[in-house]
Design goal:
Layout lengths: L8 H18 L7 H15 L7 E5 L7 E4 L4 E5 L7 H13 L8 H7 L5 H15 L10
Parallel strand pairs: 1-3
Antiparallel strand pairs: 2-3
Length: 145
């Protein structure tokens, strides 16, 4: 959906507010809480990363060039709130990627052996490349996930 070029000021703001409200109504997971994200990570950890879970996982709004991040030393995972609008399988693949960092801090071969246990990891990378393009986000080279 595009915003008509003729809309300006308050009319444009109203149009955007209506679009956001429709999106949130159609995609209830867009309002998922941090607690729901933690529950989701626990299931994914059991399925793909040998049950290793982070100390915390939460949605954040301050990540501008990353979809998510993990600090292995504190075992914290932060997920960009921009992903709330994405399909569940994309969010899941991103979470598995971050969970893999709890095993392997860098993007080594061993890391990818764990991250790629999620069957749609490569498809997720392609989705996020297009999503970033659509949002006008400049991702760092080789830093799709």
């Amino acid at each position: 959906m595009q915003i008509p070029a003729r809309l300006r000021g308050r009319a444009r703001d109203h149009f955007v507010d209506e679009l956001v409200e429709r999106l949130l109504t159609q995609r209830p997971q867009a309002m998922a809480s941090d607690a729901a994200l933690e529950a989701r990570v626990a299931v994914l950890a059991d399925l793909y990363t040998d049950g290793i879970v982070p100390s915390s996982v939460r949605w954040v709004s301050n990540q501008r060039t990353r979809w998510a991040s993990c600090t292995p030393s504190t075992r914290e995972i932060r997920v960009s709130s921009r992903l709330r609008q994405c399909p569940d399988w994309v969010i899941d693949a991103v979470l598995v990627h971050e969970l893999a960092h709890l095993h392997e801090a860098d993007h080594s071969k061993a890391f990818y052996e764990i991250a790629n246990r999620h069957p749609r990891q490569r498809e997720c990378e392609l989705f996020l490349e297009g999503y970033a393009l659509g949002l006008g986000i400049k991702m760092e080279e080789g830093d799709v996930l």
